[in-house]
């Protein structure tokens, strides 16, 4: 099938409270021209009274009407015409020339609609897509709204390969050769048979042909044939995280000199092996998953799945030391998977956040029984040819986990996935609190008694957690009561809870429904699992970020533990405030307007790395140079609200104007056995660090401006060093852009980081200034903002105050050739201008 991006010429209108008929009759003035992908939610004003509350960062969901006019050539009468929606958030109905042609209820899966019955051939056609996201409280995180992923147009001849009709495996791989198994679906829509030849050609990423095979096939009238071709590639270049080599498979259906159809797809040659003694092996080599859970939004530009946004996110995660992402908690988009293939990032793709029991009143549990098989089929078809995908997540913190019916559902989902893709593995992110259900307090009480902890204290904590949740008037949903309870899941008590016999009893059947036992916040079970279940493989599917030293030690010391997935690698919108440090009596997991972001990522929503990111990189063994995090000097001594998801409120800055002579707490992060700290050349002492001390030494000194330097000491000798320097007054702006040219395709993005510098060029993270941007030319502003997790402003405002020294503007390419000019200004500073050519 010929495939074309169907992204221009669209309009959107917002018609809350109107009927479909009224909305469809909206005036031209109410219709805004747009280019897809387009996340409608990020364009809404945050609203204190939205039922979504902090779950979506106070962004409301509404009803949206997307329309597009297009011509259908006369010769399409003999062709199959379909649209693919790669993702549409909200319950979606599609109409062509007034006729219903399809729908979708799950906002994260791709789906196809056939247009032929309603097309006006040789004339104009009116396409309407109605996306209803008004049923608020349907997501526990920022979902986005509307057509936030690509829409593709497919046109096929009488004989064709359908979309997702090519499946590629590499079942036999050695150093000298690889067998590539290509399975092809062939359709004949006509009323007579056709004798055709199917030509399969495999090329390397430089375009050189590696293998070719031709197969004769007779396609009978109105029928479908499935063929399988095995080709051999000599001296294959394998796909891996370090070397993500890709191949191209091209298929042609030939009838003499006539080409009925062509299909192309990329794939990688790699093998997977899994057992508790070797762990996870990729191409025969053991691999530990250095994993990051991520949501699908891109911070200040919302959830629009644009290739450059996905590429930037994956590159930054990989630079930070991660080699695997967990898509939390829904199927990944096609564009993201293509980027992971190209960049070398392993993927755990995930089915859903819930099954038959709701977490929000209007979530997917209401449609689970009717739709789960179709969604699994779509997810596997989407993922099948992507070498990056190694695991299918069947669910997240499923409430049925401790029940026989839950285990039965797990077996059905596992068997469904395996029937479609036997080469990959399944897991399920199990939360012990859900699994134990109403027996959890029994587990906690007995565990506390075992450790000599007063039980009434825990009972009061449980009541406080429940009361906290009730006080929110259900604004955040039942997940907040869960999160309050999970505050006990750290330290010795957490280990005792994880290993309690009731926990083992309640999870046993459910864990047998998957290939890899996935545990959320049950680290205490990881090492002991091999004693209890020698054939079980374990993955920390979700873990507290600050516990990485303990977690990674467990991963390294146990072959049956294949990795760890931190919550979370990249900050995101929604679940607002779970990582915000409160010094004013504020409480996490409550709906506190106008909190917008979770503020929990190793990287903030602009993509800047926080100290914990370097800490994790050191623990992974990927960084030798020490790093310094300074706990905010202006917050020293203040009471702090904190949860287990939060690590330290520190930044890499030694500029604290007005706090001279005050106490400063310095975190020196290093794998060296010792580190020495110097302030303006004077030693402030030497302390133990390294593995035995969780890779960190903490110093308490008096703040004075100058140079703060940490030196790694190995075998008594000074080695690698890292320094922070006090910045002077902000005297100028700095601009760092990731590109100076874009294609005029409406899809490309340019990321422009804007900061404050002193006269010597040092970044000043302390001062705050209002930064204004002005954009002219072919492109448009796709988002402008800071990493500030709590604000009311729109990301489309043209003025924003710096937060920790930075703001960022994202420019989206237009559809015409030309120059886009961005002018940046701030009071008292010289404006700066950059130009980006659209070619």
TrEMBL record:
Every Glycoside hydrolase family domain range: 733-834
Q: Where is the DUF4982 domain?
A: 661-718
Domain of life of the organism encoding this protein: Bacteria
Q: Where is this region: Disordered?
A: 459-480
Pinpoint the Glycoside hydrolase family 2 catalytic domain residues.
Answer: 280-429
Recorded GO molecular functions are: hydrolase activity, hydrolyzing O-glycosyl compounds
GO annotation, biological process: carbohydrate metabolic process
The record's section on InterPro entries has: Beta-gal/glucu_dom_sf, DUF4982, Galactose-bd-like_sf, GH, GH2_Domain-Containing, Glyco_hydro2_dom5, Glyco_hydro_2, Glyco_hydro_2_cat
Q: Where is the Glycoside hydrolase family 2 immunoglobulin-like beta-sandwich domain?
A: 170-270
Keywords noted in UniProt: Glycosidase, Hydrolase
Spans of biased composition, class Low complexity?
465-479
Family the entry assigns: Belongs to the glycosyl hydrolase 2 family.
Protein name per Swiss-Prot or TrEMBL: Glycoside hydrolase family 2 protein
Recorded source organism is: Schaedlerella arabinosiphila
Q: Upper lineage ranks?
A: Bacteria, Bacillati, Bacillota, Clostridia, Lachnospirales
């Amino acid at each position: 099938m010929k495939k074309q991006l169907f992204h221009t010429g669209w309009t959107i209108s917002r018609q809350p409270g109107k009927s479909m008929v009224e909305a469809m009759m909206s005036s031209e003035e109410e219709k805004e021209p747009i280019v897809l992908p387009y996340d409608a939610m990020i364009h809404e004003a945050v609203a204190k009274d939205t039922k979504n509350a902090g779950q979506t960062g106070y962004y409301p969901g509404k009803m949206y009407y997307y329309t597009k006019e297009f011509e259908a050539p006369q010769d399409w009468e003999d062709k199959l015409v379909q649209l693919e929606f790669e993702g549409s958030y909200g319950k979606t109905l599609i109409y062509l020339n007034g006729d219903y042609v399809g729908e979708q209820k799950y906002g994260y899966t791709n789906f196809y609609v056939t247009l032929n019955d309603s097309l006006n051939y040789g004339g104009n056609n009116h396409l309407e897509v109605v996306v209803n996201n008004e049923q608020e409280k349907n997501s526990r995180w920022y979902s986005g709204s509307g057509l936030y992923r690509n829409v593709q147009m497919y046109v096929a001849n009488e004989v064709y390969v359908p979309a997702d009709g090519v499946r590629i495996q590499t079942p036999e791989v050695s150093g000298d050769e690889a067998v590539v198994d290509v399975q092809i679906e062939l359709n004949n829509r006509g009323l007579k048979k056709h004798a055709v030849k199917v030509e399969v050609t495999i090329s390397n990423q430089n375009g050189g042909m590696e293998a070719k095979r031709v197969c004769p096939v007779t396609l009978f009238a109105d029928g479908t044939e499935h063929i399988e071709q095995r080709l051999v590639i000599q001296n294959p270049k394998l796909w891996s995280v370090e070397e993500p080599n890709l191949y191209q498979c091209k298929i042609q259906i030939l009838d003499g000199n006539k080409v009925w159809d062509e299909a192309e797809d990329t794939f990688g040659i790699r093998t997977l092996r899994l057992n508790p003694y070797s762990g996870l092996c990729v191409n025969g080599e053991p691999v530990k998953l250095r994993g990051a859970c991520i949501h699908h939004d891109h911070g200040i530009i919302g959830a629009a799945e644009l290739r450059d946004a996905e590429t930037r996110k994956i590159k930054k995660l990989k630079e930070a030391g991660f080699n695997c992402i967990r898509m939390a908690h829904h199927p990944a988009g096609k564009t993201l998977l293509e980027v992971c293939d190209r960049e070398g990032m392993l993927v755990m793709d995930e089915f859903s956040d819930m099954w038959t029991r709701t977490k929000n009143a209007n979530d997917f549990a209401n449609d689970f029984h009717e739709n789960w098989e179709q969604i699994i089929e779509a997810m596997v078809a989407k993922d099948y040819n992507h070498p990056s995908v190694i695991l299918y997540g069947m669910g997240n913190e499923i409430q049925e986990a401790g029940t026989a019916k839950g285990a039965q559902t797990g077996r059905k989902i596992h068997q469904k996935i395996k029937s479609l893709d036997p080469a990959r593995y399944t897991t399920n992110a199990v939360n012990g609190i859900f699994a134990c259900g109403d027996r959890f307090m029994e587990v906690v009480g007995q565990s506390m008694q075992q450790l000599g902890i007063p039980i009434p204290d825990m009972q009061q904590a449980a009541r406080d957690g429940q009361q906290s949740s009730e006080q929110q008037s259900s604004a955040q949903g039942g997940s907040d009561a869960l999160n309050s309870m999970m505050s006990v899941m750290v330290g010795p008590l957490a280990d005792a809870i994880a290993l309690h016999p009731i926990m083992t009893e309640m999870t046993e059947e459910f864990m047998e429904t998957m290939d890899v036992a996935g545990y959320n916040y049950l680290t205490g079970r990881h090492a002991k699992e091999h004693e209890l279940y020698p054939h079980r493989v374990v993955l920390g599917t979700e873990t507290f970020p600050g516990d990485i030293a303990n977690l990674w030690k467990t991963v390294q010391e146990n072959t049956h533990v294949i990795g760890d997935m931190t919550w979370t690698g990249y900050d995101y919108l929604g679940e607002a405030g779970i990582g915000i440090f409160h010094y004013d009596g504020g409480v996490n997991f409550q709906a506190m307007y106008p909190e917008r972001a979770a503020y929990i990522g190793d990287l903030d929503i602009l993509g800047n790395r926080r100290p914990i990111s370097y800490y994790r990189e050191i623990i992974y063994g990927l960084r030798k140079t020490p790093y310094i995090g300074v706990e905010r000097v202006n917050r020293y001594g203040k009471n702090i609200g904190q949860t287990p998801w939060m690590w330290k409120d520190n930044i890499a800055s030694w500029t604290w104007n007005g706090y001279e002579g005050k106490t400063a707490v310095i975190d020196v992060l290093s794998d060296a056995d010792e580190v020495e700290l110097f302030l303006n050349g004077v030693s402030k002492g030497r302390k133990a660090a390294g593995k035995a001390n969780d890779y960190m030494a903490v110093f308490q000194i008096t703040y004075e401006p100058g140079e703060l330097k940490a030196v790694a000491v190995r075998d008594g000798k000074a080695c690698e060093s890292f320094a922070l320097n006090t910045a002077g007054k902000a005297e100028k702006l700095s601009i760092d852009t990731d590109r100076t040219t874009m294609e005029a395709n409406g899809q490309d993005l340019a990321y422009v980081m804007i900061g404050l510098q002193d006269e010597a060029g040092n970044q000043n993270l302390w001062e705050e200034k209002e930064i204004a941007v002005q954009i002219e030319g072919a492109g448009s502003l796709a988002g402008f903002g800071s990493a500030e997790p709590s604000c009311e402003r729109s990301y489309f405002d043209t003025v924003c105050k710096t937060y920790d020294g930075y703001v960022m503007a994202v420019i989206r390419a237009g559809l015409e050739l030309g120059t886009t000019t961005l002018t940046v200004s701030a009071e008292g500073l010289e404006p700066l201008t950059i130009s980006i050519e659209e070619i």
